[in-house]
Amino acid sequence: MNPALPIALLLALALGAPAELKRAKDRFEFGAYADCAGTLRQWLATEPTLSDEQAVEAYRMLGISELQLGDEGQARAAFVNLLSFDPDLALDPFLVPPAVVDFFDRVKKEHEPALAPLRERRRELREQQRLAEEAKRRLLAEEQARTGPATKLVRVQERIYLFNWLPLGAGQFQNGQNGKGTALAAGQVAAGLINIGAIVTHRQIADDRSRLCTSSQAGCSRPPYSDSDRTLLGRVEAVKYVSAALFWSLYAYGVWDAHRNFVPIVETEIGPPGKPPAARLGVEGRF
Questions:
Q1: Which of 149, 150, 161, 234 has the fewest beta carbons closer than 10 A?
Q2: Which residues in 23-40 are b (16+ Cβ under 10 Å) and which e?
Q3: CA 1 to chain centre
Q4: Cα–Cα distance for residue pair 73/104, rounded to 1 Å
C-alpha cells in the first residue's frame, strides 16, 4: 500500500468532503459502525458525484463497518466497489483489524481476473496523462523560447478606502493628486495652528487677573474686562471660529474630492527601459 494514500484521503476529506461523508467518518472513528453503515448506505443510494478518493474512503468505511456488524455479503459488495475505484488498494494492518484485512485480501484475490484489466487500464490512463503533461510543457517551452521573455509587467496597487476619510489630503495623495493634497494639507495645518493659537490667546487674556477692572474705572463699561480687552477677546474669538470653520471646510472638501476620484485598484504597465509606464485604472468598487 502506498504510505501516502491515507494522508491523501484524510486531506481530501478535510478540504472538500460532503457533509454525509464527514458525518459517517466521525461515527466510524468512534466505533459506531451501525450508524456509519446506515449513513453511507442511504447516501450512496442517491448516487452522489464523488472523486475517486472520496469513493475509496466511503466504500472502505462501509466495508469495514458491515464486516464488523457481521454482514459479510454487504461487506463483500462494498469492498468490490472499493476495488473498482482502486484495484491496487491494500488495507493497512496497523490501522485495520487482521480479520478485516484477511477478508479484504480474499475478496481481492477472488476478483483478480476482473481487476487485472482495470489495473492495466489505470496504468494506461496515467501514462497518457503523463505524456499529455510532457507535451504541454514542451509546447509552452518552445513558445517561450520563440517569443522571448516578457517585455511588459503589470504592477497592481490596491488603494485603501479608509484614506478617503483622513485629513491633510491623505485621500488626494493616495489618488496621485500630490499638488491638491499638498494644498489641502497646508491649508488644514495653517487653519489648525491659527485655531489653537486663538484658543490659547483667548484663554490667556480671559485668565489674566491684571486685566480685570471695575465699573468705577474709566473704559470699563462692562466689567470685569475693559472695553479694549473685550473688543480684543471678541476679535480673537472670531478668529477662533473662522479658523475652525476653514479647517472643517477643507476637511469636508478633501473627503468629497477623495471619494469622487477614488479608484480601488490601479494597474500600472511597466514596459521596456525608456518607455514611460502607462497606468490603467481598475473599475471595481469595494466600499
A1: 149
A2: bbbebbeeeebebbbebb
A3: 38
A4: 12
Query: Does domain 4-110 fall into CATH 1.25.40?
Result: yes
pLDDT computed for residue 247 by the predictor? 92
**In whole angstroms, what is the distance from residue 194 CA to residue 7 CA?**
69
Angle, vertex CA 96, rays to CA 94 and CA 99, nearest 5: 115
The structural domains of the chain, with segments of one domain joined by +, span: 4-110, 161-281
**Cβ contact 171:164 at 8 Å:** yes
CA-to-CA distance for 16 and 10, rounded, in angstroms?
10
Q: Which residue is associated with the grid cell 459502525?
A: 33
Q: Which among 27, 279, 9, 5 has a CA at the least distance from the CA of 159?
A: 279
- What does the pLDDT look like over 184-243, one tens digit per residue? 899 999 989 999 988 998 888 888 777 777 777 777 777 777 778 788 888 888 998 999
Who's near 95: CB < 8 A, 6+ residues apart?
Answer: 6
